[in-house]
Structure formats: C-alpha cells, structure tokens
Write a structure and sequence with these properties.
By secondary structure, the chain is α+β, with helices and mostly antiparallel strands. The chain has 6 helices and 7 strands, in the order αβββαββαβααβα. Helix 4 runs antiparallel to helix 5.
Length: about 325
Amino acid sequence: MTRYNWKSRKALVIILFLLALGFTVLFFAGCSNSQMNYSNDANKEIAVDSGKDGGTDPQAGNTTIATDFDTSKIVYSGQASLYVDSYDQQLKEIEAYVKSLGGFVESLSSTVLDGKKEINQGYMTVRIPSARFDEFKNKLEDFGQVASVSINATNISQQYQDVNGELESLRIQEARLLEYLSKVASVTDMLTLEKELNRIRTEIESRVTRLSNWDKEIAYSNYTLTITQSKAAPVIDSPFGSLLEKIKGGFTASLNSLMNLITGIIVLFFILLPYLIVAAIIYLIIRAIIKKVKMKRQKKQGEQMEKQDLEDR
C-alpha cells in the first residue's frame, strides 16, 4: 500500500511538472507572437506615414526625406533710385527701353522740388516680362547713377496649388448641383439648390480672379523707379522778370561779404594778438634804450660845451 502511494505521488508530481512546463512554453510563445505583431504593426504605420510624406521606397525599404522645392510660381519685384542729368531725356529713354523688352509703364508721377518750372524728380512703375527682369536691372546703370537697388522674390507656388485645388473641388460641386437641379421636381428644393449653386459660382469666380491676378504678377514683374535730376537744366528767362529779387539777392550777398570780412578781421586780430603784445614790449624796450642813449649823448655834449666855454673865457 505504501509502495503504491509512493508511485502515485511520483506520477502526480511528474504530471504537474509537465503541465507547468507546458503552460510556461505557451506563455512565452504568446508573448513572442504579441511582440512580433506589435513590431509588424509599428512597421506598417511607419511605412504608411512615410508613404504619405512621399519619401518611402517600397523596393529598398528605406525612408527618405523629400527635398524638392517648388519654384514654378515666383513673383519678382524690384526698386531702384537713379540720379540723372536730364529728367525728360532719361525718362523717354527708359520708356522706350521698357517697350523694347515687351513691357509697359504702369504709372508715372513727377514732382517739382525747387519751386521752379523744371521737373527734377519722378516716380515710375513699369511692368517687365519676368524672363527679362535681370536684363532690365543690369541696364539701369546706362540711364544714370544708381543710388540704391532692392530685389524681392515671393514664391507663391504652394498658395497657387491650394487655390487651384479649391477651384477644382468647387467645379465638381457645381457639376453635381447642376445634375441634382435637373432631376429635382419640388420648387422648394429647386430654390435651395439654385441658392447653393450661386454661392458655389461666386466662390469659383473669386478663385479664378485670384489665379488670373497671380498669373499676371508671375508673367510681368513689377519695378519701381525713383528718378531724380541731379542738376537743373538751363532755362532762359527774362532778365527783368525777377529784378527785385536779383537786387535783393545782390544786396544780401554784399552784406554777407562785408560781415564775413569784418568777422575775418576780428578773428585775425585775436590770432595775432599775442604776437602784437610781444612786439609792443620789444618796441617799448628798444625805445627806452634809445631814449636813454640820447639823453646820455645830450648830457655829454652839454658838458663838453660848458667846458669849451670856460676855456674860451
């Protein structure tokens, strides 16, 4: 009986050990499968995200970053300041050159700075074909002295694509509304659809106008010029037309010259004053010496004359 119980216990222990070993193997196998599934899911998410970014190569399995920069829609503009000898002549030359490039003058204004009849400053805005923008910029030195130049390039490629995508979407909505409108029978539904159709068409017109304006800005670059006449052109006026002004100007000029002369003399006096003081002291010393010598000479002569008189007596 005892031997039988021992064998039964031994068998029970072996069975429990085998069961525990089996559960352990199953547990680790399940954990390994879970990790593999998680890793696969994570890799799939990375692949999907990379595919959305446009940088995943399914052949190589490597993730790359897109570095292309869209420069298909760039708006160029510039500003320059010119100093010219003859405003009218240079203005005509610039206008002619702009037309030769296929451009045009968009706006022009002139200003009189000194109150005379000469036009000595103007502002000109021109439109130049974008393909010849640099050619115009390099030509400016031939028209006068270029004081300043600034260039600006605005990349609107992304905005252009966004608005163009919105336009395509709106046109699809317009086509669907027209299709629904042809099938609807209710007047209420018809009015509702027409109202929505008008709204969609207004949005379409807005996008079309924006794209059209951008196309013009892209095709023709904007350049603003500030043209200043560096010296006034000679003008023939009557000699008596401003006689009083000339007299007044001459008198004022003479008075200014006199005041400048007096001022110069005063300044020169104070500059020479130390030398004058030294010269005066030297003069006084020399004069005192000469006077003393004369007095001695006169005294000696007097003594000689008295002595001679005594001898004669």
